[in-house]
């Protein structure tokens, strides 16, 4: 395995690269681990645990009543949520234990898979993980834009002007070069050309959301640097949950005609049920556990398990609770985005939507940081600080390209919420529930008992089948929506 690892693109020796910590000092990386432009071995388990809880308790996950319980109903929905929660906790803990093999520590998922299985699995994991992260970021942009639209009280013409000027001001603020300026302004121009500027459309809010995400990613470059934002993230999460829960309970108590019947043909019910399963997988798993574990202090395995335990004991009841309350209150008519369905008062809807928007800034950054880390490690100057002029300029360009492309795609296809099922089925199921057992069989299969090996083979076979079925269901849903929506639709 060691010879193979030396050939992998991500397996450069870290001894030639000093990683700058958030405290301003530098420490030497593990000589057997890949290099990284971001902080490693620095954070506490509590910080990562809070990040996991608040990252998953975003408006993205807290609107799952429609995606999970409406197609499954009470019985099957409850059973599936418990089933996936158990296997998700097990799979993540197993992956955390495989943090180091043969004395070599891995800070990226693709490096771990490449070391164990070879170059093909290295690139397979690379594609699965990064397609999931990019699609997930597009979903965040879509949902946050809708929340901003629902909570906006500014006059239309002011927001139109703000959309065009926001990027320009950002350019001067962080010293963009001409290429990044071109990407940002070109995106704004193309989107504005697609609709009448006299009416404020969803695309305006998509551009604003992408701009806000972009600024945050430049000013908070690493996952460890998010520490200062976790307190605000907790407050925003509580504000959203409290507001939506209270108003949903009020609506549910006054709604005496709600129905919990699962509608549709037999084939439709089956496909929708598998789509719901993939949505449940998304609500538990990040697909980037090795990347998050790399930020933890030693012992990394013990600390990562403590953070996961916090996620599944504190976070799980929160987002499952909102899912259950939303379905109880509105039944089969529950909306895919709860704040747009609550009856009011108006200030409650505004508070819920604004809290969701700001919280999504933190949540999406957690999931997209591995993409930023890869680009930063490839293109930033390792001899200079992350905050040097050269690295700031390069980082700004890289982030601008990422968010300009993502925002433009979301504006073209304003039903990105459907891709939640796709990323959960096609990418997250293998990454979270199949690959950990594959690694275990490969690394420890010779010494493991027959029962243990049979258990892991069961996981591999069962969730591989689920991956195929849920992916077919997700693609079917997307094809149906492609027929309904047109480019730049104002949904």
Question: Secondary-structure map with pairings?
Answer:
Blueprint: H1 2-7, E1 18-20, E2 26-28, H2 45-56, H3 65-97, E3 100-101, E4 104-105, H4 109-117, H5 119-151, H6 156-173, H7 178-193, H8 202-219, H9 230-254, H10 266-282, H11 289-293, H12 300-330, H13 346-379, H14 389-412, H15 419-444, H16 450-484
Antiparallel strand pairs: 1-2, 3-4
Find the CATH topology. Answer: Amino acid/polyamine transporter I
Ends: how far apart? Answer: 51 Å
What is the domain total for the residues? 1
Secondary-structure-based class equals mainly alpha
Description of the structure:
This protein has one domain (2-484): Amino acid/polyamine transporter I, CATH 1.20.1740. Helix content is 70%, strand content 2%. It has helices spanning 2-7, 45-56, 65-97, 109-117, 119-151, 156-173, 178-193, 202-219, 230-254, 266-282, 289-293, 300-330, 346-379, 389-412, 419-444, 450-484, and strands spanning 18-20, 26-28, 100-101, 104-105. The protein has a two-stranded antiparallel sheet. The protein starts with a helix and ends in a 7-residue tail after the last helix. The relative contact order is 0.18. The model is unreliable at 2-33 and 153-198 (pLDDT under 50).
